[in-house]
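User: Hi! I have a protein structure encoded as tokens and I'd like to know what sequence might fold into it. I'm fairly new to this, so please keep things simple.
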């Protein structure tokens, strides 16, 4: 059941009263000492904020809740001094969840509609980080509005009470995903561009030439000449210098041709930009450049707000600072083959995405189990052989195939597809080995984790199915293994 959205009432802290009663001389000494302290904390906090920006590229903007309010720092100094003793929200339960939102900004048409929605999760014990992207067209229940696109929540809340969007979205998604979301951050495009420009730009290795003939031009959304609404974005393969504007286009491009046109490619581009910004920050030794710190601090203060306290940001940075970008777990919720979402059209003719099974159970399972790690020795063995795996659900149990795929991916199996088998009365799971013994280590692990028996021969009906798939699909890659899961899999469930 969806409860009423508790909208955030942001209260400004008043830190001026602590000086009352001091004489002018002591007041002056306090002011000078406090000024030096505030500057130091400003530098420290800005470094932490940039790193969080690097890892997430998503921050929150609200005029009423600026995270770098000088008056709030002194009241939090004792927490900064005891950061290691204080617990982040969720830390006691082994997982800190942060909602990350991206939007155009208040000066744009529809500027409070969230363009990017991501759940970042951190395991305090291991330092593991996951980024789980949700599409803006996904429908979710919103109090007072029924089922609407997820990107509307922030705008609805901001319209009712300015500054409440971040909390409203985090509360709604907490119910949908069935996990606590205690922190939220939101970024507009201005802060993204300005921070990269302040750093002097970045260099990105473009893996594939990017051609996007329909990149939207800001401010020309309603141009009577339709062609004038877009520009042609072209980036050659290889190392390319980028300022903030070009980096923004690189991570936002949605209509590129070829392999760069997918959501997965877009996610990879975002990760490359984040890593490039992180490298630039470390190379510049930003802590020793006060003027640069001040410039970035101004940008953050104008465009960033959050329910993070300063000491919480510093502690979170301490947890994730040594996490390599290539070790960040990234998941994109999409409508691809075997994905958890399907396309739909509303009675009004609007395009939406909805859970393929009619509820959010599969999505919840994926989110909750993102940190269920497989043994390193087994993942290493599988990744050396890199087997492609097709999973077919041979039961009437909704979501069983996707749950199995989620678990087996952690071992390194490349799940090429998840779909229903031709019949749903399988009692026992079976593995068909199309590698014919060439990937024996992976086969042994797959058998161990699923409890399935192995069949080295292909029955006529399966040969017919594979032939039909080849006729209907272009560039179909034959899997190394086909796993048909039976009712026994509901009991054994890969057991990660």
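Assistant: Happy to help. Inverse folding works backwards from shape to sequence: for each of the 496 positions I chose a residue that suits the local structure. Here it is:
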């Amino acid at each position: 059941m969806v409860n009423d959205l508790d909208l955030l009432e942001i209260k400004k802290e008043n830190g001026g009263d602590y000086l009352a009663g001091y004489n002018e001389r002591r007041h002056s000494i306090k002011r000078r000492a406090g000024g030096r302290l505030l500057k130091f904390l400003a530098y420290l906090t800005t470094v932490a904020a940039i790193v969080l920006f690097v890892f997430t590229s998503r921050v929150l903007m609200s005029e009423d809740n600026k995270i770098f309010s000088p008056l709030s720092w002194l009241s939090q100094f004792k927490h900064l001094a005891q950061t290691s003793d204080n617990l982040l929200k969720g830390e006691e339960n082994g997982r800190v969840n942060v909602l990350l939102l991206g939007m155009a900004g208040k000066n744009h048409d529809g500027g409070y509609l969230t363009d990017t929605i991501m759940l970042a999760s951190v395991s305090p014990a291991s330092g593991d980080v996951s980024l789980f992207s949700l599409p803006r067209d996904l429908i979710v229940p919103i109090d007072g509005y029924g089922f609407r696109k997820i990107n509307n929540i922030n705008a609805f809340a901001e319209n009712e009470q300015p500054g409440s969007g971040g909390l409203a979205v985090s509360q709604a998604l907490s119910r949908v995903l069935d996990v606590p979301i205690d922190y939220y951050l939101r970024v507009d495009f201005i802060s993204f561009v300005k921070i990269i420009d302040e750093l002097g730009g970045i260099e990105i290795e473009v893996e594939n030439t990017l051609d996007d003939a329909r990149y939207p031009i800001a401010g020309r959304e309603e141009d009577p000449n339709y062609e004038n609404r877009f520009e042609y974005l072209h980036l050659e393969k290889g190392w390319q210098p980028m300022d903030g504007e070009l980096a923004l286009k690189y991570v936002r491009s949605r209509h590129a041709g070829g392999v760069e046109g997918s959501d997965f490619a877009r996610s990879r581009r975002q990760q490359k930009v984040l890593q490039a910004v992180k490298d630039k920050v470390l190379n510049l030794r930003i802590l020793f450049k006060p003027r640069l710190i001040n410039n970035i601090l101004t940008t953050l203060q104008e465009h960033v707000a959050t329910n993070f306290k300063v000491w919480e940001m510093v502690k979170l940075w301490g947890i994730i600072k040594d996490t390599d970008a290539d070790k960040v777990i990234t998941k994109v919720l999409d409508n691809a083959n075997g994905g958890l979402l399907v396309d739909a059209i509303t009675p009004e003719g609007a395009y939406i995405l909805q859970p393929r099974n009619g509820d959010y159970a599969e999505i919840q399972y994926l989110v909750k189990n993102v940190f269920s790690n497989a043994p390193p020795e087994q993942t290493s063995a599988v990744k050396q052989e890199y087997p492609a795996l097709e999973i077919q659900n041979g039961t009437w149990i909704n979501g069983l195939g996707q749950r199995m795929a989620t678990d087996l991916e952690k071992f390194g199996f490349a799940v090429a597809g998840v779909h229903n088998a031709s019949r749903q009365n399988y009692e026992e799971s079976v593995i068909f080995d199309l590698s014919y013994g060439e990937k024996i280590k992976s086969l042994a692990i797959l058998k161990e984790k699923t409890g399935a028996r192995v069949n080295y021969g292909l029955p006529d009906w399966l040969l017919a199915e594979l032939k039909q798939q080849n006729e209907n699909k272009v560039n179909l890659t034959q899997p190394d293994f086909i796993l048909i899961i039976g009712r026994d899999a509901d009991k054994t469930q890969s057991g990660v």
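A useful reference point when you look it over: The chain has two domains: 1-370, 372-492. Feel free to ask if any position seems puzzling.
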